[in-house]
Amino acid sequence: MTRFAASYLILECLHYNYRALIIMFTLKEWKSGKLAKSKDGIIVEKAVKDNVFWKNVMNCMRGVFLLTGFHSLQPSTGSGSQNVLGATVANQIKVN
């Protein structure tokens, strides 16, 4: 798997799970856990709750569409189905 493909798949997964991630950090179970109080947990929580972080995720995904020539496609809206570019990247990983 190339770094490009891995990075894209991670961004797509983050985008797809946006709401679940936001909700996770508001749950009692998170706030009472050890990780929430750790330095790394605090950094991750701040990043996920930051709107600039999510804008950067979307900008990166848009950049992938421009670089790969998929101009008419839009990023996944969380409908549960993998978008065409994600499927293309996954197929390229299987081939390589």
From TrEMBL:
Question: Can you name this protein?
Answer: Uncharacterized protein
Source organism (scientific name):
Medicago truncatula
Superkingdom: Eukaryota
